[in-house]
Write a structure and sequence with these properties.
mainly alpha, about 70% helix, TPM domain-containing protein, transmembrane helix
């Protein structure tokens, strides 16, 4: 902090500078007068006593010249003073503009170009690595079903190593977003570390890519792998129809907010399955025609769509289960809340800071009871979240029914955010993914309140990204004379889901263990 002497000195600095400038101006004016005035007072002829009347003669001419010189001196002095004062005013305005600290009055300094890794590059590296890890996770399930867990164990290990590197990168990003470290050089180093960790996550998958390719053997034929994908496709078709019925029941039984997180998921699942249908057919046709590489590409793309359809359908099924569990917990949670508040009400009037939340908690519980007895549909998970938050101040419960309710809401919010990011990752940026990764970390550490808050923030940021960026794919207009459709049905949803890139959705390879050869989309940041 600045001492009082230094503050006083800084306040007096302005007046002292002003006095010095005024003195300099006066000195300049005096100097001009000193140089000019001798022309008015000094005469070259010798003084002569006047003994009689002065007659008009040529001897008067010098006096007239002196009067003319005097007439010119005053305007010169005035002009010099005006110029000096104008210069002083300009200097004063410049000084004021440089030192002003009031809002809106400061002169913005030009942005500095800091050496090191740009922030956008770090964000893009995170998104690219996260996309790759998610795609590899989805891809691993198909050979596991075909060859067994033991056969894919080395690749599961490589995926876990990549996930650890990516988790470390997200942790560094979260700390960077929180302002840690503060030193600019250290922050640039942190960004470089994020890029390095993200690259290492992809390198772990690259190291396993050749072995994974040999295990699958798709270049030699897709027959068995295609049969696995088709079987899972048929299973999901039935589950999707059932999920539509479940979602209808949820809307009838609970408030609209209860199922808001999965609104539209059934339609999106159907869209992914339509896309998978076309790609599975293309894979079979290419395989029959003796084009194994093309067949493998279509099959892997179809597998990505089937995996995302499973995520969307599973989200509806999980939400229904969470709402049933939450509805069963609500009465016990209210009882537990009353038990938590009972011993505090006797001491609430002592002025202890930790007990100031008691009246607010009572108000929340009163409103909850009114909703439960109104006869209208309600949101059980939302009610549990409100009860837990009302009672959790200053410390969240570690055991009992309220702790169970907190775990339920935190797990549900984190899973909902993860499902949304996974199925919309083509438009979701780095910040939402960072908050989601931090929510997972806090949930694993037992911080349910922190995990719940960050998961809700991650979901809101992801939805905002989708609204702002929109679908990165714009279908080309149909060609009238084309012998085949220009794009596969469901391509827009597959691009939004990050299954295929927007720049070449019909021919590009999907991401995963073997990566995406050639140019691919620029990931959102």
């Amino acid at each position: 902090m600045t001492s009082s002497k230094l503050r006083g000195r800084s306040r007096r600095a302005g007046p002292q500078v002003s006095v010095r400038v005024v003195l300099a101006v006066l000195g300049g004016v005096t100097g001009i007068a000193w140089l000019v005035l001798p022309g008015m007072t000094t005469r070259t002829d010798a003084p002569v006593a006047i003994t009689g009347p002065v007659a008009a003669s040529p001897a008067v001419a010098p006096a007239q010249d002196g009067a003319s010189t005097a007439d010119l001196v005053l305007p010169l002095v005035a002009a010099g003073a005006a110029g000096a004062l104008a210069g002083y005013g300009y200097l004063r305005r410049v000084r004021r503009a440089r030192t002003r600290t009031t809002p809106g009055g400061s002169t913005p300094s030009p942005p500095r170009t800091e050496p090191g890794v740009p922030d956008d590059r770090a964000r893009a590296a995170l998104v690219a690595a996260d996309d790759r890890v998610r795609a590899a996770r989805d891809e691993l399930g198909f050979p596991r079903e075909l060859f067994g867990a033991e056969a894919v164990a080395p690749f599961a290990d490589a995926l876990r190593e990549a996930e650890r590197e990516l988790a470390a990168a997200f942790r560094m990003r979260q700390r960077h977003d929180d302002g840690v470290p503060e030193d600019p050089a250290a922050r640039r180093q942190a960004l470089a570390g994020i890029v390095g960790r993200s690259a290492e996550a992809e390198r772990r998958l690259d190291a396993a890519a050749d072995g994974f390719r040999r295990l699958r053997g798709l270049e030699q034929g897709v027959g068995e792998a295609l049969a696995v994908a088709e079987a899972r496709f048929r299973e999901l078709t039935g589950r999707t129809a059932a999920a539509a019925a479940v979602l209808g029941e949820l809307r009838e039984r609970y408030a609209a907010t209860a199922s808001a997180t999965v609104t539209g998921y059934v339609e999106q699942a159907k869209d992914r399955l339509v896309f998978a249908t076309v790609r599975l057919n293309q894979a079979r046709q290419a395989d029959d025609a003796g084009h194994p590489e093309e067949a493998a590409r279509h099959l892997r793309t179809a597998e990505g769509a089937v995996a995302q359809a499973a995520v969307l359908v599973g989200a509806v099924e999980r939400t229904a289960a969470e709402l049933r569990e939450a509805a069963g917990l609500v009465p016990a949670a209210l009882t537990g809340a009353e038990a938590e508040l009972a011993p505090l009400r006797d001491t609430a009037g002592t002025g202890t800071e930790a007990l100031t939340h008691v009246p607010r908690a009572d108000a929340v519980l009163s409103r909850v009871r009114q909703e439960l007895t109104s006869g209208r549909p309600y949101d059980p998970v939302g009610i549990l979240r409100r009860v837990v938050r009302a009672i959790s101040a200053p410390d969240p419960p570690r055991a009992g029914v309220l702790a169970a309710a907190g775990r339920l809401t935190a797990r549900g919010a984190t899973a909902a955010a993860a499902d949304f990011v996974a199925t919309h990752r083509g438009a979701v940026g780095a910040t939402s993914r960072t908050r989601l990764a931090e929510a997972h970390r806090l949930l694993a550490d037992g911080d349910t309140a922190g995990a719940d808050a960050l998961a809700l923030e991650a979901r809101a940021l992801a939805e905002q990204d989708v609204r702002v960026r929109g679908n990165p794919y714009t279908p080309a207009p149909p060609v009238p004379d084309a012998s085949r459709p220009t794009t596969t049905a469901g391509t827009a949803g597959a691009v939004l889901g990050g299954i295929i890139p927007a720049d070449d959705p019909e021919n590009a390879h999907p991401a995963g263990f073997t990566g995406r050869p050639g140019p691919s989309r620029t990931p959102p940041t």
